[in-house]
Protein: 7,8-dihydroneopterin aldolase
Amino acid sequence: MPTRRIFFNRLALDSRIGILEHELRATQPLHVDAEFDVEVTQQVHDQRISTVLDYRLLRNAIVEECTQRHVNLLETLIEQVADRLMREFPDVRRVKIRISKPLAFSDCEAVGIEIERSR
Structure:
């Protein structure tokens, strides 16, 4: 079955994440990079978005999962995001997600976690 890749580069959002005292009191920026290999089940019809996976729905799920509640560990958050995406979007065959904290350390651009899931 053919696939189509949808991707997000550096989706920027504020999240309540972390175990340090200052992280428990305020949000901090996160960057999300994601790739989705989506099963192509029908021909694209330019006038009907229903013939493709609407990437707005993927973005909304990522944003909601990253901002709806405080999470202590980045590892926990990325697992929750991947689980939700695989559960809610059955046409997604593979997802690769990277979530990074750009302000975690002053001596590097960002630190983060990357995972990949497939069915």
About this structure: The helical segments are 21-25, 55-67, 74-88.
